[in-house]
Amino acid sequence: MKPQKHNPITQVLLLAGLLGATSLSWAAQVPEGTALADKQELVRNNGSEPATLDPHKVESDVEGNIIRDIFDGLVAVRADGSIEPRLAEKWEEKDNTVWTFHLRPGITWSDGTAITAQDVVWSWQRLVDPKTVSPYASYPGNMHIVNAADIALGKKSPDALGVKALDDNTLQVTLSQPNAAFLSMLDHYVMVPVDPVLVQRFGDKWTQPQHIVTSGAYKPTQWVVNERIVAERNPKYWDNEHTVINKVTYLPIASEAADVNRYKAGEIDIVYTVPINQFAQLKKTMGSQLDVSPQLATYYYQFNTTKAPFNDARVRRALNMALDKDIIADKVLGQGQRPAWLISQPEIGGVSLKNPDYASWPRDKRIAEAKKLLAEAGFGENHPLSFNLLYNTSESHQRIAIAASSMWKKNLGVEVKLQNQEWKTMLDSMHTGNFDVVRYAWIADYDDASTFLNNFRTGDSENTSKYSNTTFDQMLVDAAKATDVAKRGEYYQKAEDILAQDVPAIPVYHYVRTHLVKPWVGGFTPDKLGFYYTKDMFIKKH
Description:
The chain is of the alpha+beta class.
């Protein structure tokens, strides 16, 4: 969301639920006169097998796609950046640091038991508790919820978190400082409440279909590992009257070619991502079914900065300079992706960020400087740099890795060995530091540069590069305190300038999302984070 400048009159109306509360943008909007199919069922590929459906144990869109269908948060961000009431019907704030949320009367879990403010408190305490080992344990601290950062680091008890239930339907959240992105940060799949009774009763098995209860439009009813997850409409959902699709099936097909083949055979309604090598042909033959949407996301190669030689910024910067990102974006990919020299985005959250100076240098000048940096670090013809480049199994990632390794070989004489692992295994390798350089990407959690930059903050639970720079950390603190967008942009620019010199990760390209969507699927509207919701969709008669 574009952080809103504080307007007291608008704020009062919005917080009272009088602005926008009735126009539910996150619900199926069926145009008048549209004939609907008798069978309202959707099949969508999800790219990989989810690691889990426990919101506190996940870190990617593979899981987030499903969690956003089956759980609701307190609020949601509409496509236009405004905030929509979800489990909370209204809220008010004092000094932008004390926020009070009022839950909708009568909301329940899918088994009919009440969703309470105490459930939210327990869930957020579980998220930051080091015992949970959540990849997003640092997220509430980045929101500046009181004591969240210290709890995630094991310095304070989870019950010290600045969140309390004033009664069953009223939640109070206290921030340590104003945070312009606070409301939009609430719209994240790790911030949804889960049922404490269920988690305590079944432990890690609570997400299995026979146990799980949900708060969203759907509830999983079947999970066949590496084959499919089926979710059916939740009649207890507070907004069930606006849901149209009765059943959704998520397929974990990692092969993009197999995904398209099954789409052509009529087995899939939405393709997860279109293969690079088929894009041009599919555009010609199935152009009306091809959806290309911009996305706030960056693809990058992340270094293990604790491991020689990648503990040397000269080596990291040299590899960044010697990568021809225009070729990767335009020729290897060629779907509208943009070459990246920033970890975040050129335009995000109302600010414009500039590339480092060396991004505009002629290619030969960049390569000459890269060779010089490598030589200073002790690498050259007689002692070539060699390392392993890890990526998760996918034709696209393999294709990009082959291109990158050949560029480094040609431009710098670097020897790169390619390694691939399944998604869950690669995540484990990242979190245990068992890698040299790893392919990763970050999809914005909200519309603000901090969603990208926080991943390189000292001690952040998503900082798997183990990078640390105190000046960079301070820029993020100052940006969160900034009272206007322009000032916040100045701090983000300084933070990006530091990353351009230290290069804990090489930004490769900024994303677009490509999908094939059957003509009978209505309401397919990806947001700028790349998510699309089954409850927004409907099946036309065909």
